Amino acid sequence: GSNFQDEISITAYPCHEQGGVVWAYMGPAELKPEFPALEWTLVPDSSRLASRHLQECNWLQGLEGGFDTSHLAFLHKGSSQAPRGVPTRYEVIPKDFGFVVGTGRDQTDGEIMWTANVMAMPCHKIIATEPFGAHCWVPVDDHHTMLYSVDFRPDKPLTDDDLALSRDFRHIHAEMIPGTDHTVANKGNDYLIDREVQASGASYSGMWGLSVQDCAVQESMGPVADRTVEHLGVSDTAIIQIRRLLLKAVKDLQEGGTPPGLKADSYRVRSARFLTPDNVAFGDVVDERVALEAPAVMDALD
Fold first, then answer.
1. Are 163 and 200 in contact (CB under 8 A)?
2. How far is residue 64's CA from residue 83's CA, in Å, rounded to a whole number?
3. Residue range 276-299: average pLDDT?
4. Closest of 295, 281, 298 to residue 91, by C-alpha
5. What is the C-alpha R_g of the chain?
6. Sign of the CA dihedral 54, 56, 60, 65?
7. Residue 27 has pLDDT above 90, yes or no
8. Which entry of 27, 152, 225, 227 is 20 to 30 Å from 275 by CA?
9. Average model confidence (pLDDT) for the chain?
């Protein structure tokens, strides 16, 4: 509300309102950048649907869950159409805005279907769906995260067809308890899991909607997952690289370096899905594919 916004401005931090959200800059004054050119914040209100809800876990669990591609084919089975084929190639390419995570699936005709997911520092993901999607995992404290989720179109207003899954709470937006930031399906009621639906095979999780399924997995690890007992495998390649890049950004900042994500124009990117010949390296083509000026490529969604 406005009182909260006024309090932030008065007590400590400069604020900026854009995309229906009030943003606060909490870093050193001498490093304050221009506001990042996140595409979903620039479109008209009619082209954007945004929501938020509180997750009872550390923000990194949400971020890692958002970039884990191996869960799509099973956790969301029955709720969404996951990209076809098993991922066989994983790439993480550092960029000025953060990094791009590439997941490649070999096709039968000597091509690779790539999903290029943009991670915009410090906590944004753009999703290569139609309409486009976005997540923003904002730390509240060590044990809580505010997740902002957005559907948007860069070219026209959202239609009823665009929003059908979201309005039915089957997509990235969750049904909320009125007047709160808490979801109707939550840890206290076992996320309203339906064991009969789960046993039937119609839904792997027995839970309704992508947002609830992701939240259940991320929260059930505990508020701060114990990563010392993990056994990471090939499908975790992107997660391993993401952690390394985040740790490097922290170390560089501690040593007086400049962290990524301070160039406003570098955020003019979006995630994409596209085909390449088997002999073309992901890193050689990713820039032109995720550039905001490039047309949206939706080959894998047909």
1. no
2. 19
3. 79
4. 281
5. 19
6. negative
7. no
8. 152
9. 88
